[in-house]
Amino acid sequence: MVKLKINQKEYSVDASPDMPLLWALRDVLGLTGTKFGCGMAQCGACTVHLDREAVRSCVTLVSRAVGKEVTTIEGLSADPTNYLQKAWLEVDVPQCGYCQSGQIMSAAVLLRENPNPTDEDIDTAMSGNICRCGTYPRIRKAIHLAAQMQREGGKVQ
Amino acid sequence: MAQSTKNQIINTKKAIYLLLGITAISSVVVSFRTDAYNRVPEETTMARFTAAEAAEPDSIVSKKAFLQAYKVLMHPRCMNCHPVGDRPLQGDDSHIHTMNVQRGKDGKGLYAMKCSNCHQPQNTPGLHMPPGNPDWHLPPADMKMVFQGKSPRELAQTMLNKNENGHKDHEALIEHVAKDSLVGSGWNPAEGLAHLPMSRAEFVKHFKTWLDKGAYLPDK
């Protein structure tokens, strides 16, 4: 058994230390908000936070997460200071939706480190998250909106 | 009587052949032994070289050693993280890293695109998987340590310029190439990637010889 802290909760996970974190999250713990995309750190669909950094859980081993704080899209939704999902709904970003949890997890790191990003900052931060529906313009718009909501304490324009 | 004389001659001939044979074998054995005694142990030679000759500048030996080290420094396993621009390179053809990865101020990437988000502490198994090291990064933005596109002479200049090499003196440079963990990961490529053309020990030997023999700049 491996002890993991995920979304502020302690778990004893019946997983091998060399299992990809994504498998433990989805198949063992049932946290299926995080998606499997390419399985080789190329697409970003599996992005979760490890000590607040946006790691690719498909190549991150369970052993790397031991003693660290894991946050998935489910945990981010519960964070009252996070306005990304609200902005996503307001802009109606998703089309098929498959990549969106990874997109939001990456955007959260951007807004934590740069609360007022330019278009260029957004493109730089988000270029590792692929959306085959091509929702990039709406993603960019929603990140600007979330940044504004963050600055104004949650007021939607 | 005649028979007896004949037997004696045959016995004498046998004795002569036997003696000749023993002499020949002894000569061979002795020559090997003498050779072994005369040979100076390699370690002693190296020690003598290091102590007595290392400090003596020798432009030919120094330049030649740098040209050997240059083969490693300009190999994709080393050069890919020492690019001209602010984006790392990838693969054996040193193409610009996919996903528009950026150097960032500290060389560890930007926002959700930091090196360790994909590069794990170890190589991820499989073809086209991210190579790994616990400290994966580029040189920082204020000390870019560019290798890409440099001739041997230009790269040697960069290596020796403390304003370009991370403020390292000769000793620190040798320490860096010999012991730094991320430098070492060049000799542990991910699956499918080309290996460096010599061992780390050989590379360090050439690098050290270059510096010990006067740190001469190659002609071109």
From TrEMBL, chain A:
Coiled coil: none annotated. The keyword Acetylation does not apply. It comes from Chitinophaga rhizophila. Keywords: 2Fe-2S, Iron, Iron-sulfur, Metal-binding, Oxidoreductase. Residues 1-76 form the 2Fe-2S ferredoxin-type domain. This is (2Fe-2S)-binding protein. InterPro entries: 2Fe-2S-bd (IPR002888), 2Fe-2S-bd_dom_sf (IPR036884), 2Fe-2S_ferredoxin-like_sf (IPR036010), 2Fe-2S_ferredoxin-type (IPR001041), 2Fe2S_fd_BS (IPR006058), Beta-grasp_dom_sf (IPR012675), Diverse_Oxidoreductases (IPR051452). It comes from the Bacteria.
UniProtKB/TrEMBL annotation, chain B:
The chain crosses the membrane at residues 15-32. InterPro entries: Cyt_c-like_dom_sf (IPR036909), Multihaem_cyt_sf (IPR036280). Keywords: Membrane, Transmembrane, Transmembrane helix. The keyword Membrane applies. SUPFAM superfamilies: Multiheme cytochromes. This is Cytochrome c domain-containing protein. It comes from Chitinophaga rhizophila.
